[in-house]
Amino acid sequence: MSRPRRSYAFVWKTLLLIVALLLNVTLFSRILMGSYNWKTLKDQKAQLSEELDKLNARRMALSREIRLLKTDPAYVEKVIRQRLNYVHKNEILYLFEREKQNSLWKGTETDGKP
After folding, report:
1. 76 CB contacts (<8 Å, ≥6 apart)?
2. Quick one: pLDDT band at residue 19, thresholds 50, 70, 90?
């Protein structure tokens, strides 16, 4: 018995089916990879939003400080005394090193001895 000859239409349909299946597999894999990229971008957006909130809070604090420096003489004096170590007449200024000052508040010395 001989095999029946396949028609060209059957071969073309089979070839078209194979191409369609390969295209579907490719598109499905792109969808999966796209959802992975989407999650990464979503996480990045959340991180950037958090950073933006922090920067907005810092901007507001600096804006408030600028306003106080322009309008409040008592605040200006306080800033000058703290940052520039200015004193009034008959005042004595004691300057401490930051590390020693922090350790004194904790009750220990910088070399680790109590």
Report:
1. 68, 69
2. very high
Is the distance from CB of 69 to CB of 75 less than 8 angstroms?
A: yes
Round to whole Å and give the CA distance between 114 and 102: 14
The whole-angstrom separation of Cα 28 and Cα 20 is 12
Name the pTM for this structure: 0.49
Task: Give the residue extent of every domain in the chain.
Answer: 8-53
Task: Tell me the torsion sign for CA atoms 95, 100, 103, 104.
Answer: negative
Distances (CA, A) of 68 to 11, 41, 59: 84, 40, 14
Residues contacting 103, CB < 8 A, separation 6+: 109, 110
